[in-house]
């Protein structure tokens, strides 16, 4: 639009200059000069406005770029946090499954241990009997057996054989007095 107004003004100045007298020419020239000054002033203002618009646009583009960069950084941070939360959730789920497995497995193990302990306790007497029966016992010789039976017969409280008479009035073998030569005779007979 500026380019069209300048040729129009120049054409008007030339036409008025050719048709008018010098007084009028000076007036028209002055008017054209003022018009040109105003046009130059408007052009100057337009240029300043364009520079301001350009600098504002540049600032707007820079601010938009900064905000997009901040948005991208925030999105990356959010994605990192989501990944961390997902990882923690997976760990929590794994721990929950592990605890559920323990809750299921522990009673089974406890029951198995109890049953094994019962089997061991019930087999222990059999084992003791087997050990006792598997020991080699040497038979006692006749002399040892005879001495043991004689000691039991002459003792006041017999351990192997109960007393034959339960009547306290009837004396036992130790109650009888033995002659001194009878002990020698028993030794000789052996």
Key structural traits:
190 residues, 81% helix, single chain, mainly alpha
Structure commentary:
The protein is 81% helix and 0% strand. The chain contains 4 helices and no strands. Helix 1 runs antiparallel to helix 2 (22-134). The protein starts with a helix and ends with a helix. The model is unreliable at 182-190 (pLDDT under 50). The chain has helices at residues 2-19, 22-134, 142-154, 180-189. It is mainly alpha-helical. The chain has a domain at 2-111. The radius of gyration is 67 Å and the shape is rod-shaped.
Tell me the layout of helices and strands:
Elements: H1 2-19, H2 22-134, H3 142-154, H4 180-189
Helix pairs in contact: 1-2
Structural class by helix and strand composition: mainly alpha
Apparent shape: rod-shaped
Classify the helix fraction into a percent range: over 70%
Q: Which regions are unreliable across 5 or more consecutive residues at pLDDT < 50?
A: 182-190
Biggest sheet, open or closed, and with what strands and sense? none
Radius of gyration: 67 Å
Mean pLDDT: 80
CA(first)-CA(last) distance? 162 Å
Oligomer: single chain
Annotation, overall tally of beta strands? 0
């Amino acid at each position: 639009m500026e380019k069209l107004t300048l040729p129009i003004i120049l054409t008007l100045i030339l036409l008025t200059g050719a048709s008018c007298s010098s007084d009028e020419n000076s007036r028209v020239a002055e008017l054209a000069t003022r018009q040109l000054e105003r046009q130059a002033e408007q052009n100057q203002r337009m240029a300043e406005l364009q520079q301001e618009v350009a600098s504002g646009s540049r600032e707007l583009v820079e601010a938009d770029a900064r905000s997009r960069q901040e948005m991208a950084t925030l999105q990356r941070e959010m994605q990192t946090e989501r990944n961390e939360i997902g990882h923690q959730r997976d760990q929590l789920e794994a721990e929950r499954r592990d605890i559920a497995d323990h809750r299921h497995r522990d009673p089974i193990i406890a029951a198995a241990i109890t049953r094994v302990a019962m089997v061991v306790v019930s087999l222990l007497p059999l084992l003791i009997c087997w050990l006792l029966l598997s020991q080699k016992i040497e038979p006692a010789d006749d002399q040892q057996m005879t001495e043991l039976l004689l000691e039991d017969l002459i003792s006041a409280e017999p351990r192997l054989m109960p007393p034959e008479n339960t009547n306290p009035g009837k004396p036992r073998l130790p109650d009888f007095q033995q002659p001194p030569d009878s002990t020698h005779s028993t030794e000789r007979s052996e």
